Predict the 3D structure of the following.
Amino acid sequence: MRTVYERCAGGDVHKRRIVVCRRYPGSEGERISEVRTFGTTTGELEALAEWLMEVGVTHFAMESTGVYWRPVFNVVESVCEVVLVNAHHVKVVPGRKTDVRDCEWLADLLEHGLLRSSFIPPQAFRELRDLTRYRKVLIQARASEANRIQKVLETANIKLSSVATDVLGASGRAMLKALVSGERSAEVLAELAKGTLRNKREDLARALTGRFSEHHGFLVGQILAHVEELDRHIAECDSRIEECLSPFVLELSLVRTITGVGERNGQVILAEAGVDMTRFPSASHLASWVGICPGNNESAGKHKSGRIRKGNLWYKTALVEAAWCASRQQDTYLATLFRRIARRRGPKRAILAVAHAITIAVWHVLTKHEPYRELGPDYFDRLDRSKLIKIHLQALRRLGVTVAPAAA
């Protein structure tokens, strides 16, 4: 096979060590292959970088193994181009798998140009990714704590959630803090309601009559303190994310013009994919990278399972949230798309189709730097007017009504 990269290397990355194979041409034109093992501390990785520079390595390939590839990337990217590859795409021959074989196999594939590099965003967006992902973890932790409060209240015969929509709202927190401080009178607790909830004071009094003990008070107090701490951390993350996105306010505003995409989902979309769409040759490439497009599995002329592939889970989650939001809006193209597919394939497949449409819109919006253009709820009717007329005429005939179509 043709040699694409004359001076290249492949590395098999682990937590405590990395086995590297470098390949370069010898003085008589022969291919020289050398293998060496390095540690993964910064000093040892700098020694690896110098070892690669000795022979002028231009490309270095490694698998995206958990987070262990990141320290290597941070050091090696300054001396050569790093090719991060999906481990699923570079499986070696069964029965011959060792660390040395792995690094030699990666170097061999890279040498002949058979590796496809994974998308690695610039440093600013890698930092933004860390922030948005950590915020998501904090929000999930807060949701878990809210569920724990609900379990404790149910155990204590307190049915606050049956009356108040948000147990951790302003009224709910005031009542919970009063319970923790020792107040047991249902009427006094009900008087702490605020806003429209005051109209339900009688229902609240009945719901707050229970078996709330000092033990329950201790648990609720601990959970409330944790929730308030999580709220503070989430607010600090929000502030930091807005600060990091300040140079990309225009791109964020363009993405938010897409139906269903809100502030937080827009931030996640930019953090995961960046603002430079030249990395993705087409909108279909972006959808494939996210893992939101149907799979293509054909053999012997038969189309097998078309289930979606694994992709960027954080991006995909934000898209699905935006898709559910878009599906509930009225008089929009995305809502119509959801209803059309949900009737035939069910809501789960329909929501993935809407998420795919949002991904296509994101690519076009960021590529053309133009706001999203709403196609309208009648887009599919306009697409094939004659077919729609035929369907309605058939439906009328089944009802016993005969209508002659007007002349064109």
Summary: The chain has 16 helices and seven strands.
